[in-house]
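User: Okay, second chain of the day. Same drill as before: sequence in, C-alpha cells out.
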Amino acid sequence: MTTIDLLLHLDHLDLAVAAPRAALGLALRLGARLDALYVADLPATAFSLPEAVPVQLEETQRRVAEAQAHEGVWRQTLETHGLTGVWRVSQGDTVQTVSQAASGYDFVVMERSQQRSDAPVGFGSVSRSVFASGRPVLVVPDLAPVASIGAKVLVAWNGSRESALALAAAVPILQKAEEVHILDGSEMNADLLPVLPPPGLVDWLQRHGIRARIDTIDAGPSHAAGPAVLDAAHAQGADMIVMGAWSRSRLAQMVLGGTTRHLFMHGDVPMLVAH
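Assistant: Same drill. C-alpha cells below.
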C-alpha cells in the first residue's frame, strides 16, 4: 500500500485557520500521514545589528518553548480526525528549514498571507520555498474559506515543464476528486513551450484513471491568463487549483506580469504548485 506523507509548515500556533484546515482535509482525502513543522524564523538579517542579537535569540527561544508545549494539541487534533503524524519544532531561516525538511514528503502545505506582503511576488518565503524545496507545495491563502479541499479541482495547463510537474504531482488528488476541469492553454504557448508527447493530454489522463473535462482557453495576452484562471475556478466552485509556478522567470513575472504572480497576489483558492 502506498503511503502519502504531507508536511504542514507553521509560523504560528493557530490550528483553526485556513492552512491547517486544508492540510487536515487533504490528509483525510488521501489517507495520508500529516506532520507539522513549526519554524521560529531567525533570518540572517537578525544578526545585522550585534546589539540586537541577544534580544532576537531570547525571543526565538521563547517561541520555540511555546511551540514545543503545543505538541499535545497537535496530537489531539490528529486523533480527532483519525490521522497519524508528529509535531516538529525548529528555528532558523524558514526557506532553508522547510526545504531541507520537505525532501522526505510528497506534498508541503504553506500559508500565504494576503495582507502581509510577499512583494516583490516570487521572492517571499513561500515563493522561495516552492523554488528551493523541489516539492509540490499547496499554497493556501490565509483568507481562503476551505470548506473542502480536493473535491472540485481546476487544472491550469499550459504545456510547460512546470505545468507537467504539477499535474503529475496531483495524480493522487485528481484520481479521488469528484470533478476535474482542465483549462488547456498550451496552444497559446505552442511556439515557446514543450508539450506532452503524442498522443498527449487526453491519453495521459486516461492512463492515470483521471476523468476530466477539458476546455481550451485563449485568454489573449499572457497577463490576462491569471484573471481567466481565477474566474474559471470561481465559476466551477473549485476548492483547489493545480498549476505550474513560474514557467517564466520571477524577474520576467515582476516586469511583465504572469499567471503565477496574479494568483499569488489575488487568489483566494488553495493552489497546488510545482516548479
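The two ends are 28 Å apart (CA to CA).

User: Thanks, on to the next one.
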